[in-house]
Design a protein that fits this description.
single chain, 11 helices
Length: 275
């Protein structure tokens, strides 16, 4: 009995839903019978005319020369941004400065004081100070003519590279250049312009490492003397269990402060560059 009642309810609900669907389809067909595609297009056009502004965004970096130029420009910008840290490290004074700072911190025995962030930040600002004339030349000789369109991109890149090459030539050692020229089997180099960047950049880096290690050795000498004096004194007093570095570090810091060590180190570092 209950199953027959449920079956009757299901059949009744089914017919009601089916009837509603038929009525809905008929109303939709009646409403769209007079629909015209051309009329809808005219309505959309009129609507666009009534809107006082547009949501479209257009980016044009090709200067009416086609989309390929714009794509190449974006690729060039992304490439420069990605290799910018390498440019700062390899072709500027940053390498010599940061290596000397690490030698100084190790010689003082302060381990992590000053921290790496402070040393890197100071090295970056000193690099900016030393490279300011070179940066100004790059801006005047390369970037501005390229922005004004008076030179091509290839000529602009060469003009931007030339001040960096001049800076490296002023600070590179002849023996390092000859070493890499021999390794690259490049002969008959009569002018500096004939030396490729693939030879000049590693030669400059090798010279910077050599000079920074020489400066680091000279910085170590007075602090080693203090360590030796303290160690000898402790042994003479029979205090062999006391680490000499614990006693010598305050004396080394005192000597560095009294001699105005930061001014001496930074001043000699800046003067060691020819720019």
């Amino acid at each position: 009995m209950r199953r027959s009642i449920r079956l009757k309810k299901f059949i009744t609900a089914y017919f009601i839903i089916f009837t509603l669907l038929l009525l809905g389809c008929r109303v939709y067909a009646t409403g769209t019978a007079g629909y015209n595609i051309e009329d809808s297009r005219e309505e959309v056009t009129n609507l666009e005319k009534d809107i006082p502004f547009s949501f479209g965004v257009t980016v044009d970096t090709s200067n009416d020369e086609g989309t390929l130029a714009g794509t190449l420009q974006m690729l060039l910008v992304i490439t420069v941004i990605s290799i910018a840290p390498s440019i700062v490290v390899m072709m500027t004074s940053f390498t010599r400065i940061i290596v000397v700072f690490h030698f100084l911190r190790t010689a003082l025995g302060t381990q992590s004081t000053p921290p790496n962030n402070v040393l890197i930040g100071l090295a970056l600002f000193l690099t900016l100070f030393i490279m300011t004339p070179t940066i100004d030349r790059i801006n005047q000789e390369g970037i501005k003519p390229l922005q004004e369109g008076t030179v091509t991109q290839e000529e602009g890149l060469k003009a931007c590279m030339q001040p960096l090459r001049d800076f490296m030539f002023q600070n590179v050692e002849t023996e390092d250049v000859n070493f890499f020229l021999e390794m690259a089997r490049i002969e008959n180099v009569e002018e500096l312009q004939d030396i490729p960047n693939a030879v000049l950049i590693p030669s400059f880096m090798l010279g910077e490492l050599r000079k920074s290690f020489i400066i680091g050795f000279l910085i170590y000498i007075p602090f080693i003397i203090i360590d030796m004096v303290v160690a000898s004194t402790l042994m003479a007093m029979g205090m062999m269990m006391l680490p000499p570095t614990t006693i010598s570090m305050p004396f080394k810091i005192l000597l560095f402060v009294m001699a105005d060590g930061w001014n001496l180190v930074i001043g000699q570092l800046v003067k060691s560059f020819h720019y």
